[in-house]
Each structure stands twice: as C-alpha cells, then as structure tokens.
Design goal:
Elements lengths: L7 E6 L5 H7 L5 E5 H6 L1 H13 L3 E5 L13 E6 L6 E6 L1 H10 L3 H6 L14 H21 L14 E3 L12 H16 L6 E9 L6 H12 L5 E7 L8 H16 L3 E4 L4 H5 L7 E4 L22 E3 L4 E3 L1 H7 L8 H7 L4 H7 L12 E2 L8 E2 L1 H23 L3 H16 L13 H6 L3
Parallel strand pairs: 1-2, 1-10, 2-3, 6-7, 7-8, 8-9, 9-10
Antiparallel strand pairs: 4-5, 11-12, 13-14
Helix pairs in contact: 6-7, 8-9, 13-14
C-alpha cells in the first residue's frame, strides 16, 4: 500500500511546439496548465488542445497571469513594425496577447495599461476589487467558449469548462518597501474571489519572494491569513526558489508552511517544483507543476534576450539535470559497465532503453550538438533535445510513484546513501559535487 497519496503533477504548456510531448505523456499526470497569454496568441490551437486533455478526463486550467500587470510593463513588450504612417518604423509596445488580456480583465488593469504603467495596490478600491475578481473568473470560465463558438469545426463538440480557476494574484516583493500593501491586496483579492458565485472550484495563488522563508513566524502568519480567505486550494510561487540550492533553514520553514495548510485541510501545490516537491508530499504538499524539461524553478522577473538553453539529461539518482558528458565520465567510477548496469542504477525508462539499445556508447545521443552555418557556438540537435524531454517526463512519473510507495524513513536513508556515494567520487568528476542537496532534502522527511 502507498505510504502517501501520489503527488498531483501538472504539466505547464509553454508553447504549442511542446504539444507533442504533452500529448504523449499527459496521461501519466494529473493535468495541464496553460498561460492566458498562450490562449490569446493562439486561441484555436489552445482550445482544441484543451478538448483533447479534458476528453481524456484530465484536469485543465488557464493561469490568468495577472501578476504581469503589476510589474514593469517592459517585460511584456516587444519591438514591432509600424506601417500606419506610410513607412516602416519600429516601435516598442505591449505584446498583442497582453493587450487583449488587459482589455478582457478591465479596470484597473486596462486603465493602468492605457497610461503605460503597471497597476499598484492603491488602484484597487471598493468600486474596482469585486468587478475585477468577477472579470478574472469570467475570463477563465468563458474565454475559451468565445473562441469555441467562433470555430465552426468545434461546434459539434461541447465546450469544456476548466477544472478549476485561479484568483487574481500579484507578486509580493518581500522584503522591499511596499510589500505589505501587495500582501494585503492579494489577501483581499483571494477573499473576494472566494465569495463569488460560481460552481467551478476556486484556487488562490501566493506569489512571494523566497526571502520570506528567512522569517519563519511571519511566513506562517501569511499562510494562515491566506487560509482564512476560505479558498479550498492554493498554489505557492516562491520566486525564484531553486530546490537544489535551498538552504536547511528555508526548507524547514517551507515544510512548516506546508503542514499549516495540511492541518487546515487546504490543498497546497508548488507552482514550480520538482523532486523536492514530491518529497514534501510526506509533509502534506498536494502536488506541483513544471514544464516540459524545465520550469522546476522560475523567477517572477523574466530573463530577456538569452540564448535558448540546452535541454540537459535528467539524472534520476541525483534528481537533477546535467550534461550527458558529466554522466559518461562518471560511469566507470559508479560501477556501471554496460547497458544493464545503467538501467539498474540510473534509468530504465523506455526512452533510455530505446536510445541505448544495449550499447552504452549510444548514451551520447542525449547530448549531441552541431555547429549551424553562421553561428559561432554549437547548439543541441532537435533530436537530442526531444529525447531528453521525453526521458524527463517518463523519469518524473517514476520518481513520484517511487516517493508515494515508500515510507519517509526509507526515502531519507536513500537520499543520504546516494549523497555519500557521489561525495566519494574523485574530485575531478563534476557529479562528485552535485549530490549535496540530497542531505538537505533528507532533513525534512
């Protein structure tokens, strides 16, 4: 019998280029989350995708991403070509998808955007708070239906409702000046949203800087304040928390917060999490979400203008992503001499078995790079990236099943044993220093 329920894991669809991975594996997970900006930029594709997900009896929800309008609007702007004056000129303006969102959300977001500024807590008064919450609820429950009704090909089906809806939320920049006003606004929005009429389950979002974990008592007070709003479930976004780098003290504070929601019989999810979030199911965390090969950590402030990152191999023994070269260099020291050893000690998912095909030399297919014409640096081949993504999704399902089926004490010892095994590797091997987080994780079990 499982020691605890299996973590509810949701996949986050970042773009429709990722649909092939999600559609192949979403049956392994609880459901799928889609950002409102994706719905606005590709409505037809998003609605038909939702039909496929819900048709397979999986959960589906749209993240309204209201937080983007509380930050510097330059983060959601882009350069476009303006041809309205008879000649081509470049202008820097709000992306079309966010223009549509502002229009749908209405005041005070639309008013602030018209003035080219972000919203602030003072914009939400008695006259605007409830109507704004109503518009956010209406958007999530009705926006897909609007696009559905406009598509003749879809009208022979019933338009699906989202499984649950998110309350509007904004980033709480703790401990910066003004963080209390943002906290109070988020609590007010969550409480107002909880009181709206509507049959679809309402979830709240606690989006706050991870530094709040350094003040354990204040953190727990914030947890209890959100619980008092009456919402049955919450999503926690500690920005930019990285599970591999979390300190002992912050993890202990996080675990106590998780227990606070558990004792109050409220569901709690980590908006961006990985294996540590699965382990926290032992302390009461309901589940978590992540992207297709990324998204286990996310900063509220977006990174702009970076090169597309390499999709590294997810290494199950350490529950991290790492270069396949680092893995290959350590195999002999780990006593892995052939494919059977690899499948026993590292991963036996169908992707790994298919790629390796009995010969460990084939492992390098997970890390193939090419130099494209005109580029100065090599980039990962599409086939290599595809293999890494599919392997990650299959390995993640194995990880969450592993956690749910074993007692906490067994998992604690397993983490410590693995950390000790990798710490004993020669210092010239990169993997030697990549298992230290396992000892930190073990302390919350």
């Amino acid at each position: 019998m499982p020691d605890t329920p299996r973590s509810e894991v949701f996949l986050r669809l970042g773009s429709h280029a990722e649909k092939q991975y999600v559609l192949k594996t979403f049956h392994l997970f609880q459901g799928v989350l889609v950002g409102a900006n994706l719905l606005e930029s590709t409505p037809g594709a998003t609605v038909s995708f939702a039909l496929k997900v819900i048709g397979k009896e999986k959960a589906f929800a749209v993240d309204p991403m209201t937080y983007t309008f509380g930050m510097d609007l330059n983060y959601i702007k882009s350069e476009t070509i303006d041809r309205t004056k008879g000649k081509k000129t470049t202008k820097f303006s709000l992306k079309k998808s966010f223009v549509k969102l502002a229009e749908e959300f209405g005041s005070p977001v639309s008013d602030a955007v018209e003035k080219d500024r972000p919203v602030k807590p003072g914009d939400f008064d008695e006259d605007t708070t409830e109507p704004f919450c109503e518009s956010i609820y209406a958007y999530q429950t009705g926006r897909m239906r609007t696009y559905w009704d406009a598509d003749i090909q879809l009208q022979e089906f019933n338009c699906p409702d989202p499984t649950f809806v998110f309350a509007p939320y904004f980033y709480i920049p703790y401990p910066q000046a003004g963080w209390r006003e943002w906290r109070d606004l988020n609590v007010k929005l969550a409480s107002t949203f909880a009181g709206l009429n509507g049959e679809i389950e309402k979830h709240g979002v606690i989006c706050i800087d991870q530094q709040i974990l350094d003040d354990g008592e204040r953190w727990l007070r914030i947890c209890r304040t959100f619980i008092e709003t009456g919402l049955p479930a919450f999503w926690l976004w500690l920005s930019p928390l990285n599970e591999e780098k979390i300190s002992d003290s912050r993890l202990q504070a996080l675990a106590k917060g998780v227990e606070t929601f558990e004792l109050a019989e409220r569901k709690l999810y980590n908006m961006h999490g990985g294996y540590l979030s699965a382990l926290l199911s032992k302390r009461g965390l309901t589940g978590f979400s992540h992207g297709v090969g990324y998204g286990e950590s996310k900063d509220v402030v977006p990174v702009i203008g970076v090169v597309v990152p390499t999709v590294n191999y997810h290494y199950p023994p350490l529950h991290i992503r790492t270069s396949i070269i680092d893995v290959e260099r350590a195999l002999s020291e780990l006593g892995i001499g052939d494919a059977d050893d690899f499948h026993e000690k590292v991963c036996d998912c169908t992707v790994c078995k298919g790629v390796i095909a009995g010969d460990l030399k084939n492992l390098r297919q997970f890390g193939e790079f090419i130099l494209k014409v005109g580029n100065q640096r090599e980039s990962q081949t599409p086939d290599s990236a595809k293999k890494c993504r599919l392997h990650f999704l299959l390995a993640r399902r194995k990880e969450i099943d592993h956690v749910s089926g074993l007692p906490a004490e067994y998992l604690k010892q397993e983490l410590r044993d693995t950390a000790a095994e990798y710490a004993a590797l020669p210092g010239y091997l990169t993997l030697q220093a990549k298992g230290r987080h396992l000892n930190t994780w073990a302390k919350i079990l």
